Amino acid sequence: MPKKNPYQALMQIAARPEIVFVEGQGSWLSDSDGRRYLDFIQGWAVNCLGHAPAPVVEAIRDQAGRLINCSPAYYNAPSLRLAELLVRHSAFDQVFFANSGAEANEGAIKLARKWGARHRDGAFEIITTEHGFHGRTLATMSASGKPQWRDLFEPKVPGFPKVPLNDLAAVEAAIGDRTVAVMLEPIQGEAGVVPAEDDYLRGLRRLTRERGVLLILDEIQTGMGRTGTLFAYQHSGVEADIMTLGKGLGGGVPLAALLAREEVCCFEPGDQGGTFNGNPLMTAAGAAVLESLLVPGFLAGVVDAGAHLRRRLEALAAGHPGSELRGRGLLLALELPGVDTPAVAARALAQGLLLNAPRPNTLRFMPALNVSAEEIDRMAEILADCLQGQSGGPKGIQLALTRAVGESAAIPVSRGGV
Ligand code: PLP
């Protein structure tokens, strides 16, 4: 019997290039052929301290030798430490740990619905935004406003009316007796880094208070230093009732969190849980991440790196009429009308640079928070080269390198039969 292609043992959930990564250090990855890549995706804004950061590696090593799991039915020291740190440095009073962003958002939805059952006469609807992204479980897909998902896995979970982002009047009109909350990302990440304006967020806070409904901020992509403050809500000063974190929280390991103000924390034993939730191994990693972000000067470094990246991207954008640079800190996107950005990302990959194209004309940049100025310069050089290739290069090569890509698929390149 001929041996099966080794890639076929995995379900095909993304158009992956046939590259196998075996090592990472800081902003650099190496594949099984020893080729090096500059990583400006970092697991989709997950490895906030880069690959193999010493504090996280040491915390995991140390914790693995002590206690990996003792069941969420008991307390463990790292989860208590991380919860205490999160509460001390945020506007929230209590934490529930989860294993993915989607699971944290599921928890937020459940908490809001329980609060609605208790305090708003059974109200359960959560107003969310068009093009928003909250995860891939059934409820979080239903809460998301991704047009490509409209008819997928029907029937959806009911109770998620959508409004356009940055339109306060639309939210005001949508709030009714059945509304329990408004939920959104401070910056829509998957939609192509589209910020909720500070004034809009402040208006939402005022409106939700006036109407007696909750405000939920999904900071899974924007939290943990990504925008230059520990949490993105600190830019507008808007303190929500519930916030979710994920991605950067674990520095690469599966860890997410649901945080809420005390008045909203109405879960009772049995309402919420999960076998792996808050396990000591992952929360030890999370505590090491958060302690690293809290080192004086670290977040100022993110602001500086973000400003440097912005300058380099502005210079690139100058040659492209109608281009737009969006985002904050180290979550930036460059929209280049008329440019086939998945093809640009494919060219970049061929030159050893990992870049994400969340939309057909958009590139998203989410490097490690400790990326150096030299690494940003190197990325900009490669990108400039790839953009030149895009305008002048033979279309056939791009087509051969590029395959249609879902918004969250991996690098959009197919080499061989993946
Ligand atoms: N919410 C936001 C804003 C996200 O960006 C993501 C992931 O990209 C999620 C939720 C889902 O997180 P996860 O993939 O860990 O389930």
Features:
418 residues, alpha/beta, Aspartate Aminotransferase, domain 1, Aspartate Aminotransferase, domain 2, 2 domains, 7-stranded mixed β-sheet, 4-stranded mixed β-sheet, 13 helices, 17% strand, disordered C terminus, binds pyridoxal-5'-phosphate
Explain how this protein is built.
With 418 residues, the chain is of the alpha/beta class. The protein has two domains: 166 residues, Aspartate Aminotransferase, domain 1; 240 residues, Aspartate Aminotransferase, domain 2 (3-Layer(aba) Sandwich). It has 13 helices and 17 strands. The strands form four sheets. The chain has a seven-stranded mixed beta sheet with strand order 4-12-11-10-7-5-6, with helices on both faces. The chain has a four-stranded mixed beta sheet with strand order 1-2-3-15. The longest helix is centred in the last third of the chain and has 20 residues. The radius of gyration is 21 Å and the shape is globular. The two termini are 21 Å apart. The C terminus is likely disordered. The site of pyridoxal-5'-phosphate has 15 residues, from α4.
Which small compounds were modeled alongside the protein? pyridoxal-5'-phosphate
Give the distance, in angstroms, between the N- and C-terminal Cα atoms.
21 Å
Structural class, judged by helices and strands? alpha/beta
If strands are numbered along the chain, what order do they take across the biggest sheet?
4-12-11-10-7-5-6
Q: Which percent band covers the strand fraction?
A: 15-25%
CATH topological fold name of the largest domain: Aspartate Aminotransferase, domain 2
Overall number of domains: 2
Count the E strands.
17
Helix content: 25-40%
Judging from the principal axes of the Cα atoms, what is the shape? globular
CATH homologous superfamily label of the largest domain: Type I PLP-dependent aspartate aminotransferase-like (Major domain)
Low-confidence stretches: 391-418
Overall average pLDDT: 92
Radius of gyration over C-alpha positions, nearest whole angstrom: 21 Å
Number of helices: 13
CATH class of the largest domain: Alpha Beta
Q: What's the architecture of the largest domain in CATH terms? A: 3-Layer(aba) Sandwich
